[in-house]
Amino acid sequence: MTQPSASPSSALRVSRPASSLSGKIAVPGDKSISHRALMFAALAKGETRIVGLLEGEDVLRTAAAMRALGAKISREDDGRWHVHGCGLGELQEPADVLDMGNSGTAARLLSGLLASHGIMSVMTGDASLRRRPMKRVMDPLAGTGATFLAREGGRLPLAIQGNAQPAPLSYRLPVASAQVKSAVLLAGLNAEGVTQVEEPVPTRDHTENMLRHFGAHVTVDETPDGGRIIRLEGKPRLVARDVTVPGDPSSAAFVLVAALLVPGSDVLISNVGLNLLRTGLFTTLREMGGRLDILDERTEGGEPVGDLHVRASSLQAVDVPADRAPSMIDEYPILAVAAAYASGISRLRGLAELRVKESDRLASTVALLENNGVRTRIDGDDLIIHGTGGHIPGGGLVETHMDHRLAMSASVLGLVTEKPVDIDDTAFIDTSFPGYFTLMNSLGAGFSA
Ligand SMILES: O=C(O)C1=C[C@@H](OP(=O)(O)O)[C@@H](O)[C@H](O)C1
Ligand SMILES: C=C(OP(=O)(O)O)C(=O)O
């Protein structure tokens, strides 16, 4: 497996396309669901077949890690993945360091499994992941009886001595994070008794849904203040189950915003996941006046999916409430591009979590816009963007800091600026959206590598 890295060949200059974007495409599989499918299949007894798995670098890291822990994982020529699980409590000690590349989800979720098995492991990642906080999972997971040794500030590399008889955890999330919630629930799988997580604001619930699909008993209760309490009965009999992965709404977001902004565009994105805890961007773009219709809404593999019909629209500024952030946490850089193109001043509220993503996304999104002539301001945890009414000067260089979402956002920005936009490194797009440029070019984007 090759790790994406900055190289002159991954730099890109983007200019306005010759024509509008049009056509029908499908985006790759959902990243969150793909990680979980591999992990849960590796814990189940029997053979799981996965259709539509995201074959991006992040998910390939999870596949490699689960193999190193004893699961048998193969890819068939038809694109299906087969996983022979080792069974809950049966993960084997890995012979070498587990390298999770660029993926926070892989590192955080895997920590829960490693802490709750009687094995010693060491996990690392690339320079971006080694900067990201792991204390947020180490703190609750210490309650299992596992021990952790990390670098200063709780950064990778991280050594974990897991506990073969982990204690069940009861934890209230201090930040809205599906990764922390999932790490605690995954540790609870191998613990006797009930593991409980309380989240003040609901976050994506793919772990809860898929654990049920594999046979675990999970309950979810709403709290009076709009939060949720999730309870998992430990030591379930996890049985292999086939999984169908829907298209990733977080990847669809880039195609969607490009089609809204490039004049005259008309695009259909088929088979996109519509889990309500992931669709905050769709709500927001509609509030801005975006012409976005959902067609043929259906349920596939236990998740709601549908086709998105998008037409170029005249967008107005928006005020996005902080409690919407978990349902669109990865979509702020691309929303910021839409807000820069729109008319009026937008305020995106409650973005503290953006500071601990692949890059400091609050700072890198501000730089993306400012370097291309858009006025912005950070007020506490809010981002304020002065929309240009369709006249973004451009002409700037975007530094992507090993962040795939920044690179894709910059590429969409370049489609609508007056002068071309230079992007220092697009290689990390492969972590979540392999084939991005080819797919966008099939709609008429005219990206030249
Ligand atoms: O659970 C998941 O699959 C994810 C949760 C989110 O992270 P946080 O839990 O840190 O908010 C999101 O940013 C990430 O891309 C995927
Ligand atoms: C934050 C992201 O992913 P992760 O935390 O898994 O690195 C993302 O994909 O935008």
From TrEMBL:
Family matches, as NCBIfam families: aroA (TIGR01356)
Reaction it catalyzes: 3-phosphoshikimate + phosphoenolpyruvate = 5-O-(1-carboxyvinyl)-3-phosphoshikimate + phosphate
The Enolpyruvate transferase domain, residue ranges: 17-438
Domain of life: Bacteria
Gene designation: aroA
GO biological process: amino acid biosynthetic process; aromatic amino acid family biosynthetic process; chorismate biosynthetic process
One Pfam family recorded for the sequence: EPSP_synthase
Organism: Acetobacter cerevisiae
Lineage, uppermost ranks: Bacteria, Pseudomonadati, Pseudomonadota, Alphaproteobacteria, Acetobacterales
Cellular compartments annotated: Cytoplasm
Quaternary structure and interacting proteins, as annotated: Monomer.
Active site: 330
Protein name, as recorded: 3-phosphoshikimate 1-carboxyvinyltransferase
PANTHER family per UniProt: AROM/DEHYDROQUINATE SYNTHASE, PENTAFUNCTIONAL AROM POLYPEPTIDE
